[in-house]
Write a structure and sequence with these properties.
Strand order of the largest sheet: 5-4-1-6-10-7-11
Number of helices: 7
Shape: globular
CATH topology: Spore Coat Polysaccharide Biosynthesis Protein SpsA, Chain A
CATH class: Alpha Beta
Number of strands: 11
Distance between the termini: 38 Å
CATH superfamily: Spore Coat Polysaccharide Biosynthesis Protein SpsA, Chain A
Strand content: 15-25%
Radius of gyration: 18 Å
CATH architecture: Alpha-Beta Complex
Number of domains: 1
Largest sheet: 7 strands, mixed
């Protein structure tokens, strides 16, 4: 029997770096809010996936208005976000009441492919955890106050989402007290003693954070 597949889509951005009064997840990309493109990627992967959308409570009304405007009626569970990403993911996990696999994904990564989503679930079924990542393209240097030092970039990876886990593993991991070192879900799982398995993501799976990212995303969607 196949494990139940869940996705927690976390969308709590404020649009500060993208210089927008509207939260960045609601900005339009090719006529549709960024967040809807992200959700549609998961529905394309599977019509039976159970999606939990985590939004700041103040954004519920905006989201409902956008759903009406764009005739968006795909089934999902809407959950109130917290004061941090950690708290928002934890709130999303609270909506899962059975075991299975859960992919945790940034609401502003709308170009994630069905192949990457599928790979994350297949690998998490085997390894309990699967985190998308890509190799560095540029040279990197380590710096301190006075010096810089060349570092072997082949030893490093840029981490993306989805980050997919066996449900009980990540729910137990999120029972710890929040810490500033928790930059993503993998760091929470690692803190709880779990080995993090990486798999090859995609350079097109960009996170839309700045105005330039919007331009790149539009170009990639025209391909």
């Amino acid at each position: 029997m196949n494990a139940t597949e869940y996705a927690i889509i976390v969308a709590g951005g404020k649009g500060t770096r993208i210089k927008s009064k509207l939260p960045k997840q609601f900005l339009e990309l090719k006529g549709l809010p960024i967040l809807m493109h992200t959700l549609q990627a998961f529905y394309r992967y599977s019509s039976s996936i159970k999606i939990i959308l985590v939004l700041p409570e103040d954004d519920f009304e905006t989201w409902e208005g956008l759903c009406k405007k764009h005739n968006f009626s795909q089934p999902l569970i809407l959950q109130k976000g917290g004061d941090s990403r950690f708290q928002s993911v934890k709130n999303g996990l609270d909506k899962i009441d059975s075991d299975g696999l859960v992919a945790i994904h940034d609401g502003v990564r709308p170009l994630v492919s069905e192949d990457i989503i599928g790979a994350s679930f297949r690998l998490a079924a085997v390894h309990q955890c699967a985190v998308a990542s890509v190799r560095l393209k540029d040279s990197i240097r380590m710096t301190d106050q006075d010096n810089t030092k060349a570092v072997d970039r082949s030893k490093f990876r840029l981490i993306q989402t989805p980050q997919t886990f066996q449900v009980d593993l990540i729910k137990n991991a999120y029972r710890v007290k929040e810490d500033a070192s928790f930059t993503d879900d993998a760091s929470v799982a690692e803190y709880s003693g779990h080995i993090i398995s990486l798999f090859e993501g995609s350079y097109e799976n960009i996170k839309i954070t700045t105005p330039e990212d919007l331009i790149v995303a539009e170009a990639l969607m025209r391909k």
